[in-house]
Each structure stands twice: as C-alpha cells, then as structure tokens.
Amino acid sequence: MSKSIRILLIAAVLVSACGKVSRVTPTPTIEAPPTATQRLDTPTAPVPTKTEAPQIPLDVEVESPSDLKAVSPGSPVTLRFNQPVDPSSAQTAVLAYPFVPGDLEWDSAYTTVSFTPSGGFAPGKTYTLFVDPGLKSASGGSLPETKQWKIAVQKGPRVTSHSPNEVNLDNRRPDVTLTFDRPMNTESVAQSLSVLPRVDFTIDWEKDTVANIRLLDVLEPGTRYHFTLSGKAVDVDGVAMGEDYRWNYWLNSFVVSLEPPIEIESNLVVQFSYVIDTEKTGQPFSITPPIAGTWTWARTSDAVFNPTGSLSYGTNYTLHLTGPLIDVNGDEIPVKKSAYEFSSPAPILWVYPSTLEGGPAEDEISVAFDQPMNHARTEAAFSIDPGVDGLFRWDQNTLNFRPNAPLQGDTEYTVTIGTEAINALGETVLAESYSWKFRTYYYYSYYSPLSFGEYGANAQVVDANGRRAIQFANNDISATVNFKLYEMELGEFVKRYAEDFKVKSYSSTGAGINTE
Prior knowledge:
The protein is mainly beta. The protein has five domains: 60-152, Immunoglobulin-like, CATH 2.60.40; 159-251, Sandwich (Immunoglobulin-like); 256-343, Sandwich (Immunoglobulin-like); 348-439, Immunoglobulin-like, CATH 2.60.40.3710; 450-515, no CATH class. It has five helices and 36 strands. The strands form eleven sheets. Strands 1-2-6-5 form a four-stranded antiparallel β-sheet, with no helix packed on it. Strands 10-12-15-14 form a four-stranded antiparallel β-sheet, with no helix packed on it. Strands 11-17-16-13 form a four-stranded mixed β-sheet. The longest helix is centred in the N-terminal third of the chain and has 16 residues, at 3-18. The protein is elongated, with a radius of gyration of 58 Å. The relative contact order is 0.06.
C-alpha cells in the first residue's frame, strides 16, 4: 500500500476518536521528472566493452642512397621505419659486414636512422648492411624477418695515364701530365704528390681531370726520379683513391761519343746524347796536337770537324771541350769529362789472324797496307811476341810472315808494326806503333774434318830422302785439302807425339788417301 494511503487512514482514526468531523485535504506525492536521456517507458542501454586496434608489423627500407650499386665511400646510409622504434631495444641498430665502425643518428620521431662509417667505406668493396633483429618498435613490435641489403662502394678515382710514359728521358725539364677518370679535388692532389730526389713543382689543371705538372728545378742527367701520388688524394665528392700511384723517370747520362776519321782526310764527328742549342753553345772545341780545319753543326746533336789537310797516320789526338754546352731549355749541361781521345787511321786495311778468339797455329800472319810499302824497312819494323823465327813474302801491298815452325798451341801472341815502317816513297806512315793480339788453337783444329787416319797420333814422319807422301782421313771427301810440311827437332816431335796420340772412330765417309 502506498505511503499516502497510510497517512489518510491515521487521520481518519484520529477524527473518529475525537467525535468531530473534519475535512482533511490530502498531501500530493512528488515524483522526480525524467531526465533528457531517459524515458520512463524506455529500458536503459547496456555499456559497450573496450576493444584494442590490431598492431601494424614493424618494417624498414633504405631511404638513401637510391643506388646501392654505387655508394660513395664517405656517404651515410639512411633507413626509414614505418613506425617509431625504441633505439634502446638493440645495442647497435644497424650493422655492416665486413665490420665497419660508424655513427648512428636518429631523427626526433625515431623513424629514420643514418649510419655513417668512420673513415668511410673501402672504395671498390661490397658490404652487407642489416638491422639488428632485436630492435623493436615503440609499441614492442619486432621485425618479422631479418632485413639486409648488399651495397657496392664506388671505386676510388684513378689515374688513367701519365705523360711522358717512357722511363728514359733526355729532356731535363719534361712536361709531366696526369689524367684522371673524374674531376679531382685539386688541393688534395697537390698535397698528395711528391718527387724524390726533391723537385719543386706547380700544377695547372684542365677541367679538374688533367694535371699539368710544371717542374721548377732542372733534372740531373744520370739520375732516377720517383714520382708518387698518395692514395689520400680525393675527387670532388671526397672519394679517396685508396692506393698510391707511382712512376719513375731515368734521366739519361750525358754522353759524348766520337766517330774518328776512317781515312786521314775524312771528318771527325762528335755526337752528343742531348739536343744542343747550337746558337747559344757556339763551337767550344779544340784538338791537340793542333789540326787545321773548321767546325760545323750537322744536326742539333752532332758537331763535325772538317780538316783542311791530312791527318798523320796512326796518331793519337785529344778533343777538348773549352766552353759550356747549352741544351734546348737554355740550361747548361753538366759535363763530367772535358777531354776525349781519338786516333787517326793507320795505313793498314786488315790483319790476320785478327782476334783473340783463336787462329790455327800453322797459318801465316798477314798485314795488308793501303799503299805500296818499302819491303825491307817494313819487315824490319815487324815483331811478334813470343818471338818466332820465320820468312817474309809480299803479295802486292800485303806482308805475309810464315813461321819456321808451328806456333805454340793455345797461346796469345802480340804482333807489332813499329814506326820504322815507311812507304815506297820513303814517308813515315805510322806516328805510333800499331799492334794487335790473337790466340792460337792447339796445333790441330777441333773444327777440322781432317785427321791422320782412324788410329794413330796427329803427327807423321815424312822421309825427306824418299817418297813425299802422308796418309790422312777426311770426313768430307768433296772438300779441298791444303796442308803444310814443317821440319821439327826431335824433341818437339816426341812432345807432340806423346801428348796427342789420338783414336778416331771409324767413319764410312773417311778414306785413306796417299798424297804426293
């Protein structure tokens, strides 16, 4: 029953008890008005349950450089994540293999990181760059897989050529040029270039790719110069060469050579190994003993002396340099020697035997003159050492000396024509003695196909009072055979017979021949 009804009942009882009838006005019941969001006739809606949004996987890509096949050695590599990350979740967020130390720099949102290698990547090398698998996002997410990238570092700049490209030079102020494959940092090239022995230089550039090196000091003949461009030289992007570039120059020694006259009336030619400035040099020459004549320049490296008369036969002369020699750059050439000897030709065309290589011990010794000679005086001027007796014979202008006995085998002899020799007109033809040397073979020649038979000694006795015949074998039966007979003392014969007994192998082409 409602509260209002209970109140009315109590009031009625009170009225009855007093015997009085009173009129009672009922008190109204006050109900709270409905709110704006609630209707009395509408049930209350249930409160919804809170649901979290799905998590986005962590991902990362390379932002720069755009071309991973041509990474500059000194440039950083920048990675961009698709959401903020927690740098403290990994000890090193970005790593490189082979290992390269470097610095990491994050942006304020922790979505971008740049890795800059300390000292740069090695030019021309390939690296693998990857993210530490332990790196997490700000919300705790991880990379679903290991992220890695291959990067190829640009090769450093290189020298494509240098000039002069030959090693030996005779120009003491050469124009040296270096050509690069890309524009260079010119200051770094100047600081990285050195020359030993030290030579000062300047560099002029053409489009930052061609360095023209101007040497300020003149180079010395006979000296090797070492040029080195350090690998620290960089291009305009700061990429270092990485390796030293070296080259050398050898300055040829300064040489003065003489072509002596081949005849007493021919010219003397003086050759220089460097090009001479003939106008600045002039004619700084003199000859002793004095010779009348004139000097001319045939070429920029040849001076020619034209004698007015004839030189003396077989005379020694001395050429003197009496003044400086100036090269084409206007520099004086350092000359270590100022006197050079030469000889005028002797009146001898040829001699035999002529060399130390050897000659048969049985041959004659011959001297061919270029003019008729006085036989008696020339024979008197002839000598041989060790001394040998013999006979002379003349064949026109050729003197032949035939020893009375064969010369000693394997022995060096010196033949001399003294100054006593005169020509048919009674004129002296040698100002100084003329000599030459030769060495004999053993008395038999290893180069001869001849022998004295299949078995026996290399000496035979001929009966001087009987038949003049010898027996020998010749491997080449078509060859012409020349032989000589020598008279020997018994002791000489026994010596040769004992030393050189010889066994000859049988040859089908050999044949015993009796020769008168």
